[in-house]
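INFO worker-7 received task bundle
INFO bundle size: 2
INFO processing item 0
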Amino acid sequence: MQRRPTLADVAERAGVSRALVSIVMRDVAGASDQTRERVRRAADAIGYRPDPRARRLRQHRTRLIGLTFEAGQEFHADLVDGVYLAADTQGYDVVLSAVTPHRDEPRALRTLIDDRCEGLVAIGSRLPARELTELASRVPLVVLTRRVRGVDAVRSDDVAGAMAGMEHLVGLGHRRIVYLDGGRAPGAAERLRGYRKAAKSAQLPEMVCPGGLTEREGAAAAMAMLESRQLPEAVFAFNDRCALGVLDVFIRSGVPVPQQVSVMGFDDSPLAGLAHIQLTTVRQDSAGLASAAVERMVARMDGVVTGGSAVDIVRRPTLVVRGSTAASTR
C-alpha cells in the first residue's frame, strides 16, 4: 500500500522546515506569499492533504454532527442534503450512519458517538422516547420528523398536512376516500388524526386501511381494494412511496387514474413530479426542517443553549396539486 504523504515530505520537496509547512497548511501568519505558493505547489505535486481528524483532536473539538437516517427513504435523502448544506454554513461537517434492515438504529447511533461527533441528528427515529431522552442527557440530540417530549424536535405539522390533503379531495367532490395508514412510523399518528378530523368535518365515513412506507405495501393495499370489487373514489396514502405502489397496481389493472380513482401521497419526493407520474402530494419543507435542526444543534454544541426545556419546532407543509387527482365523476 502506498504511504500517505506527510508534512515532512512536503517540507523536503519545498526545501523548507516542517514547522513552516505547518504554518502554511494552517493558514496562519509567519510565512511570505512566495513561500506559501512554493509549499502549496509541493503539496499538490505529491498529493498531500491535511488530516482534518488530527486538527480536530488538537482543537479538542471535532465540529462533527452525526446524522442517522433510514436507507431507502427518499424524503430522508432530501433531509440529509439539507443538513449538509446547513452544517457547512455553520462551519461543521456531517458524518452519516444509515439504518438498514441489517443495521439497527442503536448501532447507527453508537458509531457516530464512537466517531466523536459533538451532536446527533436522528431522522425519523423509532427508538422509545425514554431511550431518546436518556441519550439527549449525554449528548446534544435533535430528532427530525418526530415529536419526543423532553428532546429537541423539528417536524412538519402532519395533522395540518393531512387535513389540507383531505380538503383538496373533498373539494373535488370525493366522498369515499380511503386513507392508507403508516402504522407506527414517525408522523403516522398525526396524519391519521388529520384525516379523521377532516372526514368528520365533511361528514364523510372513515375508511382507514393498512398501508405502510413502501411501494410494496401500497401495492398490497391496492390489490386488496381490487379484490373487494369496491374501489373508493380516492386514495390518500401515508407517503409518496406507498402512493406509487397504489398507482402501479391500478394502472397495470386497467383502472384509470385519476378518471376513476384519484391518488394522493405525502412528502413530495423527487419521483412525485416526474412527467409520467404527476402525483398530487403534500410537500414537506425539507430544506427548512434541516436548517432548523442544524441551527438548534449548533446552539447546543456551541453552548448558546444549555439545559432547559426542549423545543418542538413545527413547520407547516403545503399542498402540491398535480395530475393524479381530479374531480369526481361518480
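INFO item 0 finished
INFO processing item 1
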Amino acid sequence: MAGLYIHIPFCASRCIYCGFYSTTNVGLQDKYVNSICQEMTIRPERPNISTIYFGGGTPSQLSYKNFVKLFDHIFRTYTVDTNAEITVECNPDDINEQTFNHLPVNRVSMGAQSFSDVRLRFLCRRHTATEVEQAVTHLRQQGINNISIDLMFGFPDETMTDWEQDLRRALKLDVEHISAYGLMYEEGTPLYKLWQANKVKEIDENLSLAMYDKLVRALTSAGYEHYEISNFAKLGFRSKHNSAYWHGIPYIGIGAAAHSYDQSTRSWNVSDIRRYIDSIEKGILPMEIERLDEETKYNDLVTTALRTREGINLDALAPRYKNYLLEAGKDYISRGLLVLEDNSLHLSMAGINISNTIMSDLMWV
C-alpha cells in the first residue's frame, strides 16, 4: 500500500506565517486541476492506495466541480482501499453545511491556529474563533467523524493564561486529533521580515517550553495519545497518512512542489504552478529525482521515526548503523534524554525539548 498526496498551493489570503498567496483566478484553478489529473495519467506508478491527502495551501478553496473531477480521476487511476483514510486540509470559514456532501472525504484537518481573534488577525487569517466551532458542527452534520485541528503557540506577547484558554476551547470541541506547533520565524516568510525589522519579538524560550509542557499534560490528561512530537490523537485516530511519512512507507506526490518517496528515491515537482502546468501539458513530468544511498536513508530515519512515540526500531537497522546510533546516543541515553527499551530508541519528554540537537548528533557524518 502507498499514500497519495495532492498538493493544492492556493490560499484564500496571504498568510503572514507561511507566505502563500491567494488566487481568485478560476481559470488557473481549472487548468491546475486538469494538470494534476494528467500527471496521474502519465506517471508510471500504479500502487494500491491506502491514504489520500489533499494538503498544502488551502485545498478547501477548490470548487466542488474540481473536487469531483479529482476524485473521479483518482479512483479511475488507482486501486483505492475500501477503508482508505481520505483527508482534506481546510480553512474553518470554507466549511458550510454541504462542503463534503457526496464526496468520499472521511477526515478533515482544519487550521484553527488560535481561539483568539487578535492572534488570528495577526496571522492574517480570515476566520474567527467562533467559525472554528461552527465548522466542527457542520462537519459532524455531514458525517465526518475524524476531525483534526492545528493549534499554534508562542505568539508575541502571548501569556500562559492565553495558551491555557486556547487549550480549553480546543478540548471542548472534542475532536479526534490535535496538532500543535510553536510559532516559527522561517526565513523568507512575511513573519520573518517583521522579526528582522524588530516589529515583532520572539517569545521567551523558557515560556515556550512551558507552553509545550502544558500542551502535553492537558491533552494526555484528556485522553489523547501523544504519538508524535507535535501530534495527539484519541485511540484509533492517529493520522495514517502522516504516520506513513514518519515510518518510511512509500507515497506519491501529485502537483506543483509535491514530493514523492519510494524507499529508493525521493523526487519533487517544480514549484511554480505555471511552469508545472506548461510541462504537464507537453506530456513531461517536471520533476527532479534523488537516489538515496544507505547513509541518507539512515539520516532520514533519524529525523522521522525518532519524532514518533515508538522511535527507531533497532531491528530494522543494519549492524553498522545500529552500532553507530547506539554509540552516538549513549550520552543522551545515560542522561535520560533518549530511552532504550524493547529494542527501540525513542525520545523522553525531556529529550523532546532538545530533539533537534539530539537528531543532529545522531546523524551519519
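INFO item 1 finished
INFO post-check item 1: The first strand starts at residue 2 and ends at 7.
INFO post-check item 1: Residues 16-24 have pLDDT under 50 and may be disordered.
INFO worker-7 idle
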